[in-house]
Amino acid sequence: MGKDILTGIHFLSGNHACVEGAIAAGCRFYAGYPITPSNEVAERASVRLPQVGGIYIQMEDELGSMAALVGASWAGAKPMTATSGPGFSLMQENLGLAVMMEAPCVVVNVQRGSPSTGLPTAVGQADVMQARWGSHGDYEVIAIAPASPQECFDFIIKAFNLAERWRVPVVFLTDESVAHMSERVVIPPREEIIKRLVSRKKPSLPPEKFLPYKPGQDLVPEMPIAGEGYRFHTTGLTHNEKGYPDLSPKAQDKLVRRLVDKIRKNADQIVEYEEFMTEDAEVVLVTFGVSSRICRAVVKRARKAGLKLGMLRLIVVWPFPEKKIAELAGQVKALVSVEINLGQVFLELERIVKERAKVFLIPNAGGEVHDPDKVFEEIKQIV
Amino acid sequence: MGSKRHPMGELIREDRMPHIFCSGCGIGATISNIAEALTEIKKEIDLDKVAVVSGIGCSGRAAGYFKLDGFHTTHGRPIAFATGLKLGNPDLKVIVFSGDGDLSTIGGNHLIHAARRNMDLTVICINNFNYGMTGGQMGGTTPTRTWTTTSVYGNYETPFNLPLLLYACGANYVARWTSAHAHYIKKSFLEVLNKEGFCFIEVISACPINWGRRNKLRTGKDMVKFFLEHTVIQENPDPKDALIQMDSPILCGVFVNQDKPGYLRAMKEVLSPKLGIEEFRGDGKAKLPETEARAELKIPKPKQIEEVKIKMGGIGGQGIALLGLIMGRAASIFDGNEAVYTQEYGAEARGGASASSVIISSEKIDFPYIKSPDVMVIMAQGAFRKYRKEIRSGSTLFIDKDLVRPYDLPEGVNIYAVPATRIAEEVGRKLVANIVMLGFISALTDLFSLKAVQSALKMSVPKGTEEFNLKAFNAGYEYGQKVKRGEIA
């Protein structure tokens, strides 16, 4: 067992909590390249993983880090890396490979001010669209946004579970603010965590009958791992159920459609959000990550002032909670996107809400979180 | 018996034949050499534990032809991918089989770093001087004054001397052969399969269709003839002489064969004695010693406290961050309250003023930052200058009396002063001035209980210094008591 699950009450930063959550989830492989504001993840991983017989390797760049994650995933590891904007851009190449090969892994992206080098030490939330389609091609991944160190611990376990369950890379879309704040983190007893863990489906047939890319009812294939006698082949090329390259339009349609559908058609099982005072709300703030803390404060204040304000907080950002947004659009007068970018979740709201309600954006180019006083003033105008 | 199986059917995916390689190409031959070598020793090794990783390009297709666990990855990344695979499960023998453009040009960074780390991999690098799959463009290994589709006037760049590069990076084994040297390729491969560390075999390979025909070597036969006539095999050749030039012979042989610890052994040599763990692997199958689990899970009932915002400022080295951290731990772990602790980041904080903040409340804290502090703790004049404007009427200001001279403050600021640094020096070390300040604040506020702050202090300082830090804390606390009783102004 060793020191894998540190049951107890801690006071941890979001970045440190990510590592403890990952180890509790069974992560024993970390490959990464240092970048602010994610460094504390790497530093703690370099201390903690060897203590549990795991691997910490500091790669030469983020291209290699992400490639190493996919390799480790095929060795049977639950691998993780952490990065921020510039590094996340470099990881897109092999994040696409993980999508195509269906290799479970978790990529922590501590968002900072951007584009390019931007604001290395200050907050941003402008990688929402990149998290979805940062690599080339049609695909779907899962992205989860925590709002506190406790959620970094709890949700990264969720992230590993979803990666294993759906065989996709999961982007842990945190931000500089959540990464660097410290709060109480309660790590529950081992049995409680072990009960929560999900592992990839293993081959149910012997090697001679097994097809590595034949999907189950849920569109997810069973996953062999290297060294167990399956002698399978996997490739970034378009492939058939055998895993062999098949460059025909027919094979392309079958494969890409399945990769996309396995998330879209199962979205109900993946989507997760929190509703705060939405029952009778006339205006609902739609937000995620650290911005949800600011919105919660604003909602509380608005309620005291007699304004019927509520909040929908995206826990799973991708796939997007389309059904819930459509439902709210029929109930409320307006939806207001509050995010530290110039309108990314906002685009999704516009797409789904259409004319059924008004859609507003309270933007912020980054560098600091929204000022609750200013958000409250804008909300008063909207209401 | 008598069936029409491929002669190496056990190791080659017959259902993928015919392969994609052009007539006269050296890649298929090299794949055969490796397959033959593995067939020869199949009784000695477990083929289920052998994996092949390739990148993109003609040679990159190799992983698809071996009937082994095979990974056809992205352009330039097979070595990085293989690194993850090997460290995920060190029981695997991982062979990287890919081309010169893939491994040394787009993937050059991974190549040199894997060699530097002496990563436990066997790398077969097919060098055919060009990007064949995309139609014959030049790359980082194209010899000077040869022609490709993107060097139609003649290449004026200098190619990599791969044996010299790999020698310089520290690989355990570096050899070069040509695709006409089947015997040597097999021999080298068998030599390194059980060798630890980074083992690199360069195979200069015939590419008559895309490279040869633009360089007066139209057929595979021409190219093999050229290789046999233009290569020199030496014992212990010097890698400095291995640059490929069209007007001098291609130097072949084993350039490096040494036994430095491979990555996994080097890692164990450092980690095992420190951690008492014998095995490190990514798949979670390492055996670990049993240890007792911590199980303190009772969060104390919060004592009622209105939200208090505390900001601390000083200069680097005064332990301003630690001061905030101890307060956060005291409030949240030991008093059962909510607490958020943040530090001020930013380039301007380096070496200059540094700040940390703690918000304490019995309710959940939404907004994690401080716009207007209720309590300000200032340990240096520079920090006072920087944060003075945030000090408002009705708030409380704690200062190091010898280091901070307040000025231009609004009316109604409650000031408490302590010679924290001087007291720390009396206790024994200037370094603990922050802890003296903590004791002083504890005496004059009810932000946290005495027991909580002392427990938090003990868990936050280096082992063995707890008593000394408590002494500093008590000195500050006593000074605070005296101020509280009016014995000191």
SSE inventory with pairings:
The complex is a heterodimer of chains A (383) and B (489).
Chain A: E1 8-13, H1 14-24, E2 29-32, H2 39-51, E3 55-58, H3 62-74, E4 79-83, H4 85-101, E5 105-113, E6 119-123, H5 128-133, E7 142-144, H6 149-166, E8 169-175, H7 176-180, E9 182-187, H8 190-196, E10 233-235, H9 249-264, H10 267-270, E11 273-276, E12 283-288, H11 291-304, E13 309-314, E14 316-318, H12 322-331, E15 334-338, H13 345-353, E16 358-362, H14 372-382
Parallel strand pairs in A: 2-3, 2-4, 4-5, 5-8, 7-8, 12-13, 12-15, 15-16
Antiparallel strand pairs in A: 1-9, 5-6, 7-14, 11-13
Helix pairs in contact in A: 1-2, 1-6, 3-4, 11-14
Chain B: H1 27-40, E1 50-54, E2 69-72, H2 78-88, E3 93-99, H3 100-106, H4 108-117, E4 121-127, H5 162-169, E5 173-178, H6 182-193, E6 198-204, H7 220-230, E7 231-233, E8 250-257, H8 263-275, E9 308-315, H9 320-334, E10 338-343, E11 353-361, E12 375-378, H10 381-387, E13 396-400, E14 414-418, H11 420-427, H12 433-444, H13 450-460, H14 466-484
Parallel strand pairs in B: 1-2, 1-3, 3-4, 4-6, 5-6, 7-8, 9-12, 12-13, 13-14
Antiparallel strand pairs in B: 5-8, 9-11, 10-11
Helix pairs in contact in B: 1-6, 3-4, 9-13, 11-12, 11-14, 12-14, 13-14
